[in-house]
């Protein structure tokens, strides 16, 4: 028996394709899916630190070209950005890229294309862009918790700036129960979001460490009392849960979520015996028809107060199904009270009622502009209806006086605007309103047609001035001889040279080039005239039998000068002497 050869199937080894490469490091974000997820501005600073470049260099040379944005003004593409940060790279930009608008989406797409990651949108508020407003959403300055920075350094974790620190309603650290810091303890200046020294945990101006270097290095901060901590602690916790829930959502909540949830909770309150027409959101009672109809989004602080009163979290309000109606006869628990100025409860008797009448009589006796009834009620920490209930006669006089004053003010405003339409040259609307001590918004509200005419006249006069300036600059460029300097033209027109460069860059460039060419031509002409004069003097000395030396020729020049320092003059004189047969 012989062993026959065994034939195996031939396998062609397939070469595996390499994974896609990214332009920048695929740096992993910190804290996605947790309340302390870092912000996109913090990720940018860490990404620049990983590439050993400044964040301004990374933005100007990598991100801006990728996003199709122009370079910042006065920043040459090949130059190094200043230590204090490139122009335009400010805290406003940090709020925009951490936010929920079009700029944030554009920067997220650009960074994901450069790094190869697909989770950078969770470092912003883009998930909640349809349900959160932009007004008062972010703090105006960079804030931080020194104890958190010290914990990051002690445990060896990378330093980062959580996104929750940038939100305006959050005022203190939930973990350490201490208020945020906004000024460097060394230079006492606020931080800059993007600069040559920007690093999480360090001052962007002098590089000082912002954490507590040792126990007791920072001034001791007493923990707030339980009653005072309840509201800010709840705000920080619920907004942290909002950031934590973003990666787990199947899709972002639509815009009608707020209107649907607000209407459902409003109906729930009505069934429980609370007033259906208004919602108590602080010292005033805010009408909610626009919120219920979806015409406007709730401001972030009012949205938080509403969730506080409903005893729900912000994530539950924006993602969970609305509640069912309270069955008839059921007793609903009163919502927790928001720490605001309370109105005067109960009946007013004795001194309190006399104090109310005294305040109204003092408002009527005021010599200045009449005070509104609402302002008096706010000063007394009461509601307007309370004043009407206890002093209707004084309220009627106060309202009538205020109405007459407003009517007279509107008449003066109308006369002021009509007079502005007859002025020559036409003034701008802002100057007209400043002259009459009238807010511009009030002028637009009462007399929009007059305001439009004033604005149109000012715009036409401004366009005419622009055309006049353009014709004057064009005349200086093409027709004036000799061509003047840009500074002379600007002084003649009563403008600055920088203003002309800003409005007419091409014409100013042509004027500068023409003046420079004229200067060069005059210099060459003077040079040739001097050479001819030197030649004539040398020939005259030669005819007299005198050696045409440099000093003799220089003494006989029409404008005596030292020609020995000019190589061209010396070379021409020597060449002439050789032609005349003189020994050098």
How does this model look, in words?
With 584 residues, the protein is mostly helical. It folds into four domains: 40-226, no CATH class; 253-340, 434 Repressor (Amino-terminal Domain); 351-454, no CATH class; 522-580. Helix content is 50%, strand content 2%. The chain has 22 helices and four strands. The chain has helices at residues 40-50, 55-67, 91-97, 102-115, 146-155, 226-245, 256-271, 289-293, 300-310, 314-319, 351-364, 373-379, 384-390, 392-421, 429-435, 440-446, 448-478, 486-493, 497-503, 505-543, 550-555, 567-580; strands at 172-173, 178-179, 278-280, 285-287. The strands form two sheets. It has a two-stranded antiparallel ribbon with strand order 1-2. Strands 3-4 form a two-stranded antiparallel sheet. It is flat.
Q: Helical element count?
A: 22
Distance between the termini: 117 Å
Q: How many strands?
A: 4
Morphology: flat
- N-to-C order of helices and strands: HHHHHEEHHEEHHHHHHHHHHHHHHH
Biggest β-sheet, characterized?
2 strands, antiparallel
Topology record:
Blueprint: H1 40-50, H2 55-67, H3 91-97, H4 102-115, H5 146-155, E1 172-173, E2 178-179, H6 226-245, H7 256-271, E3 278-280, E4 285-287, H8 289-293, H9 300-310, H10 314-319, H11 351-364, H12 373-379, H13 384-390, H14 392-421, H15 429-435, H16 440-446, H17 448-478, H18 486-493, H19 497-503, H20 505-543, H21 550-555, H22 567-580
Antiparallel strand pairs: 1-2, 3-4
